[in-house]
């Protein structure tokens, strides 16, 4: 199965489709810079950055997800060590949710934000579908995160058309997000999902979001691919594109299949995404991911196909969240 996009092939698709002007929107994703979002530190210069679409923010190529150790109430010291080390290494984008660890992810991140908030582009989410529910939830998130504002607030896990019907209704969550943005509580709004790219495609066509958080890994092209029409539309709108499920929660790795984190992460970063978020278990794991991002070079199409081919025999596992979540 051939993967759909490399940088070069995507630009060719844009030109052939009569939308060559959109190519200018692709280029910022690949414009690597080394300026920090917040204050500089001794090691932050290692981390390449890309522009988060129309937000204009320069964010780290590799970013920290709020699951794994970061969401554990019984491992708060280790969570703080991971978060602080990530910031020291130039990671400046952190993604979380009140659903992660029953709020413990936000609490653990908040302990670090109390001291280092200005260094982070901070993103969390609402799983509520109503206006009132979202307004209650954002207050709780702000309290746990020990901040008075969010850089990005996202609709969490949009799976079905019925989810969109609810959030776009007269009393839906989208109106809470827009009000929070108007009032300056949140700077940008986004949509997230990992089950059905067609549902997200409808979402970004019916409402003007700033970002999209979507699944993308080496098994994506085999079933309901996010890397085709959805990614093309997101780029054409100049959305900030955040990739998740890079390792399919570890299921993408297998003896005789895909076994290298460098291959898994480099595959994803070779698409026109702004960043890839990964949940981290240990500081050593974090440092490995940072090292991969620091040395990243776009993979040629042949190598992309080889990596995708490694997953062919167990692609359902690499796409398990499209089937079960």
Secondary structure topology:
Elements: H1 7-16, H2 23-30, E1 49-51, E2 58-60, E3 62-68, H3 76-88, E4 93-95, H4 104-116, E5 121-126, H5 131-145, E6 150-155, H6 161-167, H7 173-182, E7 186-193, H8 197-206, E8 211-215, H9 229-236, E9 240-244, H10 261-269, E10 275-280, H11 283-294, H12 301-310, H13 315-318, H14 320-324
Parallel strand pairs: 3-4, 3-10, 4-5, 5-6, 6-7, 7-8, 8-9, 9-10
Antiparallel strand pairs: 1-2
Helix pairs in contact: 3-4, 3-11, 4-5, 5-7, 8-9
Could you name the key traits of this structure?
325 residues, alpha/beta, TIM Barrel, eight-stranded parallel β-barrel, two-stranded antiparallel ribbon, 41% helix, 16% strand
CATH fold-type name? TIM Barrel
Q: Which residue ranges are poorly predicted, with pLDDT under 50 across at least 5 consecutive positions?
A: 1-42
CATH class: Alpha Beta
Specify the CATH architecture. Alpha-Beta Barrel
**What is the C-alpha radius of gyration, as a whole number of Å?**
18 Å
* Strand runs, count: 10
Looking at how many chains there are and whether they match, the oligomeric state comes to single chain
Individual helix count: 14
Biggest beta-sheet profile: 8 strands, parallel, barrel
Series of H and E elements: HHEEEHEHEHEHHEHEHEHEHHHH
């Amino acid at each position: 199965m051939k993967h759909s996009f490399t940088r070069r092939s995507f630009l060719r698709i844009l030109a052939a489709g009569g939308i060559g002007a959109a190519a200018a929107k692709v280029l910022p994703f690949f414009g690597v810079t080394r300026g920090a979002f917040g204050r500089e530190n001794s090691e932050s210069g290692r981390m390449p950055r890309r522009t988060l679409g129309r937000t204009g923010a320069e964010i780290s190529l590799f970013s920290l997800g709020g699951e794994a150790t970061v969401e554990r109430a019984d491992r708060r010291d280790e969570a703080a060590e991971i978060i602080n080390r990530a910031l020291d290494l130039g990671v400046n984008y952190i993604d979380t949710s009140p659903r992660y660890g029953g709020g413990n992810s936000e609490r653990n991140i908040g302990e670090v934000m109390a001291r280092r908030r200005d260094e982070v582009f901070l993103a969390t989410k609402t799983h509520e579908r109503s206006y009132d529910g979202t307004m209650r939830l954002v207050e709780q998130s702000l309290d746990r995160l020990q901040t008075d504002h969010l850089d990005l607030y996202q609709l969490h896990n949009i799976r079905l058309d019925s989810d969109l019907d609810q959030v776009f209704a007269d009393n839906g969550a989208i109106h809470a997000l827009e009000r929070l943005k108007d009032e300056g509580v949140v700077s940008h709004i986004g949509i997230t999902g990992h089950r059905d790219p067609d549902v997200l495609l409808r979402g970004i066509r019916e409402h003007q979001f700033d970002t999209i958080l979507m699944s993308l890994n080496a098994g994506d092209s085999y079933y309901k691919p996010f890397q085709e029409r959805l990614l093309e539309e997101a780029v054409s709108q100049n959305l900030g594109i955040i990739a998740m499920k890079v390792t399919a929660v570890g299921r993408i790795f297998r003896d005789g299949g895909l076994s290298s984190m460098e291959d898994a992460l480099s595959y994803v970063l070779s698409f026109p995404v702004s960043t890839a978020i990964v949940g981290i278990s240990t500081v050593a794991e974090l440092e490995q991911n940072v090292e991969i991002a620091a040395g990243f070079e776009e993979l040629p199409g042949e190598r992309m196909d080889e990596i995708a081919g490694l997953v062919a025999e167990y692609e359902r596992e690499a796409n398990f969240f499209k089937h079960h979540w």
